[in-house]
Amino acid sequence: MDRSCFNCNHFFPVIMDEPSEFGICLNDKEFEPFIDELLGNSNYACCQSLIDRKKFDGNRDTCPDFSVMEDSFEIDEGTEFGRELVETVKSGQFCQEKLEEIILREQIRNIDLKTLPVEKYSKQLKHPDPQERASAISTLGSLIFQENEDAFHELFNFLKQLPPPETREEVHFKKDVFRYFVHLAHSEHSEFRTKLTQFLLGELNNLPSNNTTRQWISSILQFLESCPLEEISDPLEKMLSNNRFSYRLKKRIENILLKTDENGLNYL
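The structure assignment produced for this chain is given below.
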């Protein structure tokens, strides 16, 4: 094992929540009154000012009091973290950098994507740089797949605020945003689907039907085809009496309504 303070039995990291190369030496007599609190309770507050004054880089060369770190704890090889740690030690590659990598991967695995805060990406959506906005859209879209409710509301509100597309570029942009929602037609998260369905039905009812909007209308209808008929039948039936819809569009709506529900009941 590399003879650095980091691998000494007296070395104690200055923080436990994240990887750090800094630590203190518990062999230092000034820490003697606080050892029980530090080791037993990870209570840094009991001597924080002393820690700040005494901390050092664990990569430095050792002193004559160097004590080889003992294997005094068990590693649970049933966890991904434990398996990585054991494999690294067995391969002879164990060092501070490798340990930090393993800890970082474990922290990422433990992130609850359903509750991950999205404030950062909300601000990005308003950024003047298109690449920044695209990055925020992509990240929020990925979090929607993880059923992150805040991500859904942020990106959904962004989609609703987009004006009716008047150019092909605007149509393509709206479709790019919408693609992060299409899986919700089959989702068990009915609250998300219901809100999205109501928005799309309103969009379809108010959107001018022309060559420019055709692709966006087609995307809407593809989504509605996969929705439960009880959520879409009444609004779509009312649209059939709207004279501004072309024959082709009405036939598409009729085909959706002609689908049968799970009990085989026909809605027309």
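Interim note for the steering committee: The two ends are 77 Å apart (CA to CA). Residues 1-72 form one domain.
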